[in-house]
Design goal:
It is a single chain. The protein contains 8 helices and 20 strands. It is an alpha+beta fold. Strands 6-7-8-3-9-10 form a 6-stranded mixed β-sheet, with helices on both faces. Strands 11-12-13-20-14 form a 5-stranded mixed β-barrel. Strands 15-19-16-17-18 form a 5-stranded antiparallel β-sheet, with no helix packed on it. Strand 17 and strand 18 form a beta hairpin. It starts with 7 loop residues before the first strand and ends in a 13-residue tail after the last strand. The structure holds adenosine-5'-triphosphate. Adenosine-5'-triphosphate binds next to helix 1. It catalyses: ATP + H2O + polyamine-[polyamine-binding protein]Side 1 = ADP + phosphate + polyamineSide 2 + [polyamine-binding protein]Side 1.
């Protein structure tokens, strides 16, 4: 079992895989620490499954290196690696009961019977199916089948468990429950899990770190907080969370703050992390998260402050989402916390809108959309 987080479990260096002319995975370098839960996140066709399959040895890269537990496994097929994979179709053996499904890998390894029993029951406890050892696979619910698949994969003590959208066939409530379960199992087992998903909230809920992919490239690799608060670019900002992306023109910059023109308003904003100073006149994009915007009395004293007209107000229980028109060319969305019984703005109301430089991020212009992928 892995308990430390200070050593690398699996690592890729400049991994590339092409199908015909097209790079499904393009120069991906990433390092996953032992005991980490990492999600590979991105829209359909961005290359996350191909990357996962290369990590598991089901595909081989055209270029680059893969290290598993410090060993170079580039070119080593799946059966020669200490990793295991779970797919959306769980592929449990229908003619075996739960016990024998989980025991299968140990039997193949010719583990002594008593040891198999001990380890299978340990796994059944881990996935909270202690009483289900004799159940037929056909008599399991979707969530129970998921747990059996996880137990079957973990009983072999893989260096890394690779999961390819295993929850996507479940209905919403069960999916949320299984997200918590999977995280708990990973924590208790102490292993390294790499999870592919196109669902940003799923990735945010479970991961220590997220790798955001687009068109085969790893755009950003960081903790959920880093990715949310400091997105590497326009695409990541839009893919994770709700944000207004506003076209602006750079007026000038001083260290980390930049003055921009936003449809006739001069705003003071923060430069993108690691971004180089952009020259005056550069067209750019400002990312302003819905919930960082303040309205009415809350907006007084903000560094950036202007008026807008409420176009729409959508009640969301704990919060209200407003659509506000600043100019005929510019509408933004703002989400504000709402307390029961508190007054709210109505369409037509003129309200003060405010935010500080730290609340907004100037991002590089987006790359043109690739036709290789579909937005979720
Ligand atoms: N065996 C293959 N032969 C040819 N092209 C492939 C093959 N596998 C994947 N591709 C292509 O490589 C690109 C990346 O596919 P991949 O399945 O890795 O994406 P993904 O992000 O996992 O998408 P999804 O979420 O839809 O599964 C896509 O353009 C896909 O069509």
């Amino acid at each position: 079992m892995n308990s430390g987080r200070d050593t690398v479990s699996i690592e890729t260096k400049g991994v590339r895989k092409t199908y015909g002319e097209r790079a499904a995975v393009d120069q991906v370098t990433l390092q996953v620490q032992k005991g980490e839960f990492v999600s590979l996140l991105g829209p359909s066709g961005c290359g996350k499954t191909t990357l996962l399959r290369m990590l598991g040895g089901l595909e081989q890269p055209d270029e680059g290196v893969i290290l598993l537990g410090g060993r170079d496994v580039t070119g080593v097929p799946a059966y020669g690696r200490n990793s295991n994979m779970i797919f959306q179709q769980l592929a449990l053996f229908p003619h075996m009961d739960v016990f024998h499904n989980i025991a299968y890998g140990l039997k193949v390894k010719k583990t002594p019977k008593a040891e198999i029993k001990r380890q299978v029951y340990e796994m059944l406890e881990l996935v909270q199916l202690g009483d289900y050892s004799n159940r037929a696979i056909s008599q399991l619910s979707g969530g129970q089948a998921q747990r059996v698949a996880i137990a079957r994969a973990l009983v072999n003590r893989p260096e890394v468990l690779l999961l390819d959208e295993p929850l996507s066939a479940l209905d919403m409530q069960l999916r949320l429950d299984m997200q918590h379960e999977l995280k708990r199992i990973q924590r208790e087992f102490g292993g390294t899990f790499i999870f592919v998903t196109h669902d940003q909230s799923e990735a945010m809920n479970m991961s220590d770190r997220i790798g955001v992919m687009r068109s085969g490239k790893l755009l950003q690799y960081g903790t959920p907080d880093e990715i949310y608060e400091n997105p590497a670019d326009h695409f990541v900002a839009k893919f994770i969370g709700d944000t207004n992306l506003i076209n602006v023109t750079v007026l000038g910059s001083d260290r980390e703050v930049v003055r921009v023109d936003c449809f006739g308003h001069t705003l003071i904003v923060k430069e993108n992390r690691g971004g180089s100073a952009q020259p005056t006149g550069t067209p750019s994009v400002l990312s302003l998260r819905y919930e960082y915007i303040r309205l009415g009395a809350e907006a007084e004293g903000s560094v950036n402050s202007f008026e807008g007209t409420v176009i729409e107000s959508v009640y969301g229980g704990a919060s209200i989402r407003y659509t506000l028109e600043i100019t005929s060319e510019l509408r933004i969305q703002a989400t504000v916390l709402h307390q029961r019984g508190a007054s709210r703005y109505a369409p037509g109301d003129i309200v003060r809108i405010g935010f500080d430089p730290d609340d907004a991020l100037l991002l590089s212009e987006p790359e043109p959309e690739s036709n290789q992928e579909n937005r979720p």
